[in-house]
Structures are given as C-alpha cells and as structure tokens.
DNA sequence: AACTTACTTTCGAAAGC
DNA sequence: GCTTTAAAAAGTAAGTT
C-alpha cells in the first residue's frame, strides 16, 4: 500500500524488491461552473469570433481556451460545462481566464464562479498483465465482450467508478468525483485481481 | 380492491400479449438466421424474464427480441455476432447492443466468454475446407489462448487467422481475402492476427 | 504494406427537443 | 433517448499513398 496522502503518479513503478506498482494519471476533468446570472449568448458570439454557436443543434455555446487547453460549453442560464482540464489547478485557472476574457469583451459578469467537479477520467498502468477471462469469470459487476470492445468493463461500488481494464494491465478509470477516488480504485482493483489470481507476468 | 385486481389483471394481460408478440418476432429471427429450434426456448425464457422485470417498457420489442436471441446464442455457444442479428431489425446494432447489456445486467446473466473455436466450423464449411483444417485451426486457437494471445481480440478475427494458417499447413490454401470475407472481418485483421500467431506460437509455414 | 483518421466502450453536466 | 465537449485504453475499419 502506498504511503498515505502520496499520489500514485509520483510513486515509482517498481519497488526495490522488483514488485510491480501501479501508476495513474488524470487525463480529463469535467466540471460545471455557475455564474448565477443570465447570459446573452448572441452577444458573446458577436464579441468573440472564435466561439461556435448553433442553437438549433445544441443550446450551448462552445468556447475553446488554448492555455490551459480546455473547452467550455456556455449556456444562457449562466451555467457552463468545462472539459479537458488535466488537473484541478488547470481547471480553476481556465475558469478564471474564461471569465476574465468575457469581461474583456464587454460581457458583464457579476459574481464569483462556483466550480463543481462532476467527473474525473484517468488512465493507469498496473505494470503487470491481466488475465481478462479469469477476471471476467470471477469479478462481480463486470462485462467482457471482446467482439465489441477489447477491455473488461467493471463497475466498482466503492468508490463508485467504472474501470475499463485491458490485458496489457493498462486501464481507464471514469466516474470519479475526487482525485483520491481514482487512486483508491486503482489500488483496490490491483489487490482484487491479485487475490483472484487474474494477474500474469507480461 | 376490485380496482387493484383489475389493474393487475390488465397489466398481466398486457405483458402476456407483449410476450406473445415477442415469440413471433423471436421465431422470425431464428428462422432467418438458420438457428436450431432449441434456441427459441432459451431466447423466450430470457425475454419473458426481461418482460416480467419491466425491462421492455419504452423500448422497441424488436430490439429486445433481437437482444434475447443474441443472448440465447451466446449461452448455447452458437457463433452469431450481434451484427448478424441486428441487421435483421430496424433498430440497428447500437440499440440491440444496448438492450443486450441491459438484459445481462438486470437479469444478472452469467454470459460465457465467446470461444473463437466456435467460429471455426462456420468459416471452414463456407470455404469448403477439410475437417483436418478445422481440427488444426482449433488446436492453434487453444494454444493461443493458453499463451494469452486471444485477450481482447475479436474471436472471428482469431478464428480466421487460425484457419488461414491451418489451411496453409495442410495444403488447402485460401487467400486472406476469401477467409476475411467468410469471417466477416477485414484482410488487415486476418493479417495482423496471423502474424502474431505465427510469431508467438513459433509456427513454421511450409515454403512458398 | 504503411499512414491517417475514425469509430467501439465508459462517465457526467448543461438546456431543449 | 438525443444533441455537444474531452480523454484514455486496444482493437478494428476505411481511405490514401
């Protein structure tokens, strides 16, 4: 078990004994932001030429920021969805930049934006291969349909996340609301696969 | 209390009528796919359980019936892809797949993992290959699975590659194009699987 | 045959059809 | 349910060169 509080991404892939250790990386954070005010999307569309806005197709206005590289969907209710951030810091920085930019272009913003993380997507590597057939037969709440998708889909109860596990030992974790849940899920699935003897050397 | 009884009776009648109609649809699909009659019983049992759990509400009967047939084929080890079945209904592959996942999850069905060996005879017979090729292809697939080469790969592609190799070994060569068409995968997939099997199983093909 | 691009699966929120 | 966004995993597909 890794040292408490330390992020898996900072932990070495292998201990001195040579035992494989999982590594994880946050790939995408999806968050909602509330500005608590109505917005005139047509005004934003006229002021900022780089946005996309097709209300017939989708009610949100698409705003892309280069640094941090995120995409925001802005709605007339003053709520938005920000996707693409690789860290909480990037997310906060991006929201500040977007609000600052709107103001700079003459769109008045009154209150402080309220940010809520809705989903965290991460990739991880157990650094050992997984016997998917064995895992599929012994792991609860899992689905493995190689005709349709090469990964085993596992719905974990606690933390409540979904994992896409591949035979290479690499995986995708999604549905997490806190970064800690990602590391918790990776450690938990690693221990469980070991217990089920569904781990094999690569 | 009479009202409740009537409502319950009405609901039961409604479900029974739905199941009757589904039985006709399931029979149609099974005949169109040339599946053994025994699959009907399994598919009907699955559909009935799904209907009784209320999984049919708001979903097309056609797609749910197709999903039940696909699940029945899986349980009975009959090699039919979800596309083979989905192309016979208007909902499309995506909806049939969604219904199938719903059925498996809600009824907590333990689906056996698709065995590529099951696809072999279907492909070899379409190409008029000998039983010897069939037997050899199965051996290759069993060895491949033991070595962990089949995880995550499309069983049809694996079967196609094993047959390609077995046919070459036994002097009954078929082109990758012919085999790919019979298996319902692309030539690129047959080639990729074939290369990996030959390399990792140390298979030596006859010269030329 | 290589490359490129693109689609399969998973997740969540937004507003409206 | 759908529409739109982003991102990863590994396999398969399709179009070019």
UniProtKB/TrEMBL annotation, chain A:
It comes from the Archaea. InterPro entries: TBP (IPR000814), TBP_archaea (IPR033711), TBP_CS (IPR030491), TBP_dom_sf (IPR012295). The keyword Transcription regulation applies. Sequence repeats lie at residues 26-102, 117-193. Keywords: DNA-binding, Repeat, Transcription, Transcription regulation. The keyword Transcription applies. GO terms for biological process: DNA-templated transcription initiation. One of its GO terms (molecular function) is DNA binding. Transmembrane segments: none annotated. General factor that plays a role in the activation of archaeal genes transcribed by RNA polymerase. Binds specifically to the TATA box promoter element which lies close to the position of transcription initiation. Belongs to the TBP family. This is TATA-box-binding protein. It comes from Hyperthermus butylicus (strain DSM 5456 / JCM 9403 / PLM1-5).
């Amino acid at each position: 078990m890794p040292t408490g509080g330390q992020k898996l991404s900072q932990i070495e892939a292998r201990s001195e004994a040579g035992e494989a250790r999982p590594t994880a990386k946050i790939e995408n954070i999806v968050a909602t932001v509330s500005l608590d005010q109505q917005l005139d999307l047509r005004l934003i569309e006229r002021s900022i030429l780089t946005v996309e806005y097709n209300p017939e197709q989708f009610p949100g206005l698409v705003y892309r920021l280069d640094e941090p590289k995120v995409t925001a969907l802005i709605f007339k209710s003053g709520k938005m969805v920000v996707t693409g951030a690789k860290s909480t810091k990037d997310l906060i920085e991006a929201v500040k930049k977007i609000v600052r930019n709107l103001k700079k272009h003459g769109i008045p913003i009154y209150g402080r934006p309220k940010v809520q993380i809705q989903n965290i997507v991460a990739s991880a590597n157990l650094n050992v291969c997984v016997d998917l057939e064995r895992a599929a037969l012994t792991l609860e709440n899992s689905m493995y349909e190689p005709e349709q998708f090469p990964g085993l889909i596992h719905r974990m109860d606690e933390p409540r996340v979904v994992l896409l596990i591949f035979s290479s030992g690499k995986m995708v974790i999604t549905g997490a609301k806190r970064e800690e849940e990602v590391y918790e899920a990776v450690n938990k699935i690693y221990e469980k696969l070991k217990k089920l003897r569904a781990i094999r050397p690569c | 209390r009479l009202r409740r009884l009537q409502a319950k009776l009405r609901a039961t009648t409604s479900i029974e009528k739905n199941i009757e109609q589904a039985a006709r649809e399931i029979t149609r699909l099974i005949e169109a796919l040339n599946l053994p009659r025994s699959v009907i019983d399994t598919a009907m049992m699955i559909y009935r359980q799904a209907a009784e759990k209320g999984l049919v509400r708001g979903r097309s009967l056609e797609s749910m019936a197709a999903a039940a047939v696909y699940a029945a084929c899986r349980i009975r080890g009959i090699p039919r892809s979800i596309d083979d079945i989905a192309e016979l209904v208007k909902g499309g592959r995506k909806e049939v797949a969604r219904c199938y996942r719903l059925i498996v999850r809600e009824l907590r069905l333990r689906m056996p993992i698709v065995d590529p060996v099951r696809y072999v005879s279907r492909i070899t017979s379409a190409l008029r290959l000998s039983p010897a090729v069939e037997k050899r292809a199965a051996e290759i697939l069993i060895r491949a699975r033991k070595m962990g080469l089949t995880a995550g790969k499309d069983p049809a592609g694996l079967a196609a590659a094993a047959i390609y190799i077995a046919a070459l070994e036994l002097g009954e060569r078929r082109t990758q194009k012919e085999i790919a068409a019979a298996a319902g995968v692309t030539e690129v997939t047959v080639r990729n699987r074939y290369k990996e099997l030959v390399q990792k199983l140390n298979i030596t093909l006859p010269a030329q």
